[in-house]
């Protein structure tokens, strides 16, 4: 999910939120109901989550989907 400048901000925002929450990829994966590999792929920009996963991530970290994808600060 690239912003208007073409930068993939989702992967950076997800990793930053996870690190701020002081949880590992395995714990986040368990909370979201996905595998650790999926979290790794998202954080490395290999894959992107679908809408249902974006909603879960936003709810878990108490941020908006717009924030996750770089549409707001």
Which percent range describes the beta-strand content?
A: under 5%
**Uncertain runs:** none
Q: Give me the number of helical elements.
A: 5
* Form type: globular
What is the H level of CATH, i.e. the homologous superfamily? lambda repressor-like DNA-binding domains
At the third CATH level, what is the topology name? 434 Repressor (Amino-terminal Domain)
Q: How many separate structural domains?
A: 1
Which structural category do the helix and sheet elements fall into? mainly alpha
Terminal residue distance: 15 Å
Give the CATH class. Answer: Mainly Alpha
Give the SSE order as H and E letters: HHHHH
The overall pLDDT average reads 90
The largest sheet, given as strand count, sense and whether it forms a barrel, is: none
Q: What does the radius of gyration come to?
A: 11 Å
CATH architecture: Orthogonal Bundle
The helix content, as a percent range, equals 55-70%
The count of β-strands is 0
Task: Give your account of this protein's structure.
With 73 residues, the chain is mainly alpha-helical. It has one domain (9-68): lambda repressor-like DNA-binding domains (434 Repressor (Amino-terminal Domain)). 59% of the residues lie in helices and 0% in strands. The chain has 5 helices and no strands. Helix 2 (25-32) packs across helix 3.
